[in-house]
Amino acid sequence: MNKVLVLAELNGNDLDNGVFELLFLLNNLNVSDDEITVGVLGDDLQDKDEILKQIPCSKILAHSNIDTNNLNPNILSKLASAMIEDLQPNKILISKTNLGQDLAPRLAFKFGWGLVNDCLDIEKNERNDWTGIRPVFGGNFMSKINIKTFTEIYCVRPKIFDSLTDKTISPEIKYMQFTNDLATKTKVLERIKEKSEGIRLEDADVVIAGGRGLGGPEPFETLDEIAHLLNAAVGASRAVCDAGWMDHSYQIGLTGKNISPNLYLTVAISGASQHMAGCGSSKHIVSIDKNPDATIFNDAEFGAIGDWKNILPGFLDTLKDLAKE
Question: Residues 61-95: pLDDT tens digits?
């Protein structure tokens, strides 16, 4: 029988959606609810029962009366370690958020356990052995990794799985008293939330992105119009952001943001492996590029070969006509 610990983040009153995706993954693996414990990391959790009860699991671990100093990773690492020592799990799942990417290797190093980072999926064989699947070589290949340590840690890329929203499960919350020293050599002075207009790139169901082939920043005004009509978010390739046409907060790819929209529409993006590493899990990819040999067409479900200047205006006009109906 597995003892699985899922680590979740609660920032203020905002519960990160990654915990629901991880529970969906575990449901796909046929892990029973009585094998799963969700450990929640955040401030003053003893006053947030109603938020914690939104998590569809039967067992929740949380620390009471804790100030995490704006989710300081050094403090969260100590709290997570206390949960692990209390539960003694043999599987740990963490969503690959900014915090998760920091926390997972800390725990792996502290306990000497194996870690599959940027995990896209987990397979299970008849012996109940788990295999983590992650991209390598810029997303050109997939690597299957078996961890041989007593406890296995999987840092799973978000927006890959659906969310588990089983309302029939009501969790029992166990509050732990943390008595160890929380002093650290670092202090988080302030967290500044990124300001963005419209839909967040990571949360969008539809994303339209432009590449270097657009020739400059002006064509992104057309992409903005299309995004408005499709209720979509706008993204860009690294070359666009490096050129200063768009801020790096719009960058999609290995060194940018990971997205998994239902529809990903690319315009003048060649489809380099570093870019596809950040969007390869999109459910449907539609691409426009004048190069018939562009790599993007290997991943695109539909493609239009031609100059974007001849294709986008007609597409935009059609969307405007449909919006009037």
Answer: 998 888 888 889 999 999 999 999 999 999 999 99
Q: Give me the phi and psi of 249, to 5 degrees please.
A: -70, -15
Two tokens, residue 146: 């078996």
Per-residue pLDDT tens over the stretch 29-63: 999 999 999 999 998 888 898 999 999 999 999 98
Domains annotated on the chain, with CATH: 4-176 (3.40.50.620), 206-324 (3.40.50.1220)
DSSP letters for 193-229: PPP-SSS-TTT-SEEEEE-GGG-SSTTHHHHHHHHHH
DSSP class of residue 138? G
Q: Please name the residues in contact with 121: beta carbons below 8 A apart, sequence gap of 6 or more.
A: 25, 132, 133, 160
Q: CA 61, CA 52: separation in Å to the nearest integer?
A: 10
Rounded CA separation 142/152 (Å): 19
Count Cβ atoms below 10 Å from residue 175 Cβ, excluding itself.
14
